[in-house]
Amino acid sequence: MSQFRALVGVLRGGRAGGSQWLRACGGAPARRWVDPRRGCSSGAAPVLSTVAGSSSYMEEMYIAWLEDHKNVHESWDAFFSNIHASRPPGEAGERRPSALLEGRVLSHSANMAQKVVEDHLAVHTLIRAYQIRGHHVAQLDPLGILDADLDHFVPSDLITTIDKLGFYGLDESDLDRSFQLPSTTFIGGEDTTLPLREIIRRLEASYCGHIGIEFMFINNVDQCQWIRQKFETPGILQFTKLEKRTLLARLIRSTRFEDFLARKWSSEKRFGLEGCEVLIPALKSMIDTSSSAGIDSVIMGMPHRGRLNVLANVIRKELDQIFCQFDPKLEASDEGSGDVKYHLGMYHERINRETDKNIALSLMANPSHLEAVDPVVQGKAKAEQFYRGDTQGKKVMSILIHGDAAFAGQGVVYETFHLSELPSYTTHGTIHVVVNNQIGFTTDPRMARSSPYPTDVARVVNAPIFHVNADDPEAVMYVCRVAAEWRATFNKDVVIDLVCYRRFGHNEMDEPMFTQPLMYKQIRRQEHVLKKYSDRLIAEGVVTLQEYEEEVAKYDKICEEAYASSKDEKILQIRHWLDSPWPDFFTAEGEPKSMSSVPTGLKEEVLQHIGQTASSVPLDDFKIHPGVSRILRSRADLVKNRQMDWALGEYMAFGSLLKDGIHVRLSGQDVERGTFSHRHHVLHDQEVDKRICVPMNHLWADQAPYTVCNSSLSEYGVLGFELGFAMASPNALILWEAQFGDFNNTAQCIIDQFISPGQAKWVRNNGIVLLLPHGMEGMGPEHSSARPERFLQMSNDDPDHFPEFSGDFEVQQLYDCNWIVVNCSTPANYCHVLRRQILLPFRKPLIIFSPKSLLRHPDARSSFEDLAEGTKFKRLIPDVGPASQNPSQVKRVIFCAGKVYYELARERKQQKLEKEIAIIRLEQISPFPFDLVRTEAEKYRNAELVWCQEEHKNMGYYDYARPRLLTVTANRRPVWYVGRDPAAAPATGNKFTHFNELKRFMDTAFNLNAFTGKDL
Ligand SMILES: Cc1ncc(C[n+]2csc(CCOP(=O)(O)OP(=O)(O)O)c2C)c(N)n1
Ligand SMILES: [Mg+2]
After folding, report:
1. What biological-process terms (Gene Ontology) are attached (predicted)?
2. In a 3-state reduction of DSSP, which class is residue 173?
3. For residue 101, what pLDDT is reported?
4. In the chain, N or C terminus with fewer CB closer than 10 Å?
């Protein structure tokens, strides 16, 4: 109200703020009209601009109007008609211009004009109020008992009763007065003026029916206009007879599928869709619309609820394949431990019947962890777009389905939204559908979120939110169509909030009356949506009862037949549930095409060429920072000497793979420069804003593209995204780097639920690489440890079983493992392991504990010889010094991993113990190189075996290495521990303590009597 009065004040006084408001007419500054018939895109603006301008202008208009009402714009016509209607008796018939010019009439007219302006402003404000707040009173809850926005409050500026007109200074007598409609509404259709009564009626219909729209926070006028037009235009919600019949048929399938499962397996959990059966036609409708807009690949992610129904009726998985999942006796015949039926994924290509176009649909396998699949879906969609050159998202799109409680509660939803507009992460618009059954397990939404709607998180990216009552199937279809059109038009995210209910408990075994008695009393009374809609269409004459019953019987028969054939299934193939097939990578049976390792060395000229590009600026007139110049010069010196540091080793790996047509993508926080300022893969012109150069993309004319992208400050979202990206193709090296390895635990869910067990659960390979800076360097408890112990604990190789060596043991072992964990101590080995990752005939996740101080350590360098043709990744680096010359004299063998090697080597040299103590580096920690370790242990048969690490005893590699070392020696030789004592925090925050700890364990490592007389 005060805002409205302030506006009137501005107009009266012509204060500075007013001119802004007056620009409403087509965005141009307010100006006087000289031609009374000249049009303006905003019908209201002439009235306003005149009042703020001059009264003589108004007189000109008035004279013109008196002569012929058609002489002036309609807005003036409405304006003067209003004045005339309210003039004192006797003056109404006055047509003489001269009379008007008399002060008495003029001042009266001015007062009237003031009133009319205020009333027009009021009506405009009222229209805007509906556009902004109409959704708060929309009838969204099919049960009619809860408020979708958790609030009974009716905004005071919505006209829910006549007396509320007073809020705007209007009253009942104004209801039949006509008002000019502003250009920011489409409720008039062809009409530019409407009586107030009709304005309110149409606003109610557009904004307060079964659809509630939240969009006025979007700060783009075109987008707001687009939405207004879609929802305000009169009669826009009309469906053809054919569309209604299609919708009914889809609703029948959705409903009868759940009924069928309930009948056949009444005591099985299936997380049915009852209460939101409309989800199936909803998804199909948005896929139809997207398909006709050119989309031919849709990647979907969804939680448990309704998943089987989506597989059956949207993706069109064979029904017998779904039904046999209910047979507890059928065990998977292929690898892995499998997953429960409502987690499996699926990929299917078919013809879209509505558009007659090919469409590929995939539903990603997902864990129970709600919303975790969101970024994975986005990553996979992005990768498909990337590999298909679909730079605008016109071919490939993603759809994400959410639960109301999870959408509001899970932070990864927010993280995923924040990827949606970033150049290297955008999928050019996702349609989000929230199955808002107004409950999360047993928790009422009022206890589950602090925001009015579960969808408020989407507002951060200016996504429009369409709330819709799921018991009105046509309203839902309309909203879905508009959402798909929105995505096709603006390539931005959009959210559909399907307000529904959950007919049964959380799963079919749960009793909802324990916790939601009143809601469930209502739900029991609630007529099924299929019944309501079929009754309606029969009444409308769209279908006959007989046609309806035949359609139901037809689908029931399909289910029965599939059920019968599912009984013939003798085996289950998890492979049939693969969401991301790699057609030519494996044999037809899904096996690797070979099982031998390939050397990963490189030709000298390739090393030289990459080295030179890495130390130069391939663009002309490109001015780089002097500090970067220095780095490039020192790289050039290294190359001249056929040497490489860490950054060059990485360059060699990426560059050589790009040469072979392998796309390389490195993503993470600040990866372009590198957290430790060693990488500099993106050069910045110091004089031209935003001019950059990525030398890696200037290596060869026909190379694959290199993507290096600084990510948003997220681990969960970004790692999930990269994991999804890596699913799309085996011919790409996808790396995610944590800023410090310590931060990987905010992405723990992706690591635990997808990366470690992904292949076992979902038979799908994934070659993602995690670069996790790790090392105890006195930087405190949060910048020291990537928690190797956790990765190793999840490795599936048996600590107590000494494997048989047959064939290519290295490759066989890699094939059997769930992931590979390495800590490379040299740049060459780092390069080899990255190359091996791609040259292997299968894909496994690769966890690399990467260095910090070693990036610049003068000893941590490799020669080009170490990368020469014929060389390969060293899983273990043996001692090649004096100890190895005379192994029987060696008293102690220290096994270690990572940077501590350099500290040990230096100390050994200082203490002149190079003959007595051998130091062996385990570069591939898991799977454990049993073969190589045994060779070393046998070589130094008289020596004590020690595991040395810089991490605390309950962390690091010790718990993993020790039992395996014991297995290697058949428990005949003790394995001693040297390292930091057990601790709660990964590192001390005190530098002095840090060095003291280091000194203490170094002393033990080189005290040859340290274990004498000790028992283990
Ligand atoms: C991250 C996570 N936390 C907790 C759970 C346990 N859980 C399973 S379903 C569920 C309720 C989900 O509610 P909602 O998102 O509204 O989906 P609905 O089941 O109502 O369809 C919960 C808490 C889970 N699966 N994932
Ligand atoms: Mg819910």
Report:
1. glycolytic process; tricarboxylic acid cycle
2. helix
3. 47
4. C
In short, whether 369's Cβ falls inside 6 Å of ligand 1 is: yes
Q: What does the angle CA 256 – CA 261 – CA 263 come to, to the nearest 5 degrees? A: 90
pLDDT at 49 (0 to 100): 39
| Cβ 428 vs Cβ 392: under 8 Å | yes
Q: Is the CB of 441 under 6 A from ligand 1?
A: yes
Q: What is the DSSP string of 100-169?
A: HHSHHHHHHHHHHHHHHHHHHHHHHHHHHHHHHHGGGGS---TTSSS-TTS--PPPTTS-SSGGGGGGGT
- Distance in Å, CA 407 to ligand 1 centroid: 10
Domains of the chain: 112-232 (1.10.287.1150), 241-438+445-501+527-577 (3.40.50.970), 604-774+823-867 (3.40.50.12470), 876-1006 (3.40.50.11610)
Q: What single letter denotes the amino acid at residue 54?
A: S
The pLDDT tens digits for 714-736 are 999 999 999 999 999 999 999 99
3-state secondary structure at position 736: strand
Mean residue pLDDT of the chain comes to: 90
Evaluate: CB of 977 within 6 angstroms of ligand 1: no
Does the C-beta of 269 come closer than 6 Å to ligand 1?
Answer: no
Assess whether pLDDT exceeds 50 at residue 20: no
C-alpha distances out from residue 883 to 59, 373, 1003, Å: 109, 52, 19
Element (H, E) at 479: helix 473-490
| 971 C-alpha to ligand 1 centroid (Å) | 47
The DSSP letter of residue 209 is S
Q: What is the 3-state secondary structure (H, E, C) of 760-788?
A: HHHCCCCCCEEEEECCCCCCCCCCCCCCH
Q: Which residue has the tokens 């008289």?
A: 942
Nearest-atom index, ligand 1, CA of 372: 1
CB of 149 within 6 A of ligand 1: the answer is no
- Mean pLDDT calculated for residue range 958-981: 97
Q: Token digits for 147?
A: 């408020």
Which stretches of 693-849 are DSSP H helices?
716-728, 748-750, 758-762, 788-793, 809-816, 827-839
Residue 731 CB coordination number (10 Å): 17
Give the number of the ligand closest to the Cα of residue 303. Answer: 1
Between CA 558 and CA 555 the distance in angstroms is: 5
Cα(277) to ligand 2 centroid in Å equals 14
Q: Say how many Å lie between the CA of residue 809 and the centre of ligand 1.
A: 43
Separation of CA 129 and ligand 2 centre (Å): 30
Looking at per-residue pLDDT, the higher value among 77 and 545 belongs to: 545
Can you give 944-1010 as a three-state secondary structure string? Answer: EEEEEEEEECCCCCHHHHHHHHHHHCCCCCCEEEEEECCCCCCCCCCHHHHHHHHHHHHHHHCCCCC
440 CA closest ligand 1 atom index: 13
Is residue 454 in contact with ligand 1, taking CB distance under 6 Å? no
Residue nearest to ligand 1 atom 12, measured at CA: 440
Pocket test for ligand 1, best of 441, 449, 509 (most atoms within 8 A of CB): 441
- Closest Cα partner for 483 from 277, 297, 211? 211
In which element (H, E) is residue 709 found?
A: strand 706-710
Q: For residue range 339-394, list pLDDT tens digits in order.
A: 776 778 889 999 999 999 999 999 999 999 999 999 999 999 999 999 999 999 99
Average of pLDDT values for 23-45? 31
Is the shortest distance between the CB of 439 and ligand 1 below 6 Å?
yes
Element housing 261 (H / E): helix 241-264
Distance 260 CA to ligand 1 centre (A): 25
435 ligand 1 Cβ < 6 A? yes
Ligand 1 atom at minimum distance from 441 CA: 11
Q: Provide mean pLDDT across the span 909-929.
A: 98
3-state secondary structure of 440: strand
For residue 404, the ligand 1 atom closest to its alpha carbon is: 16
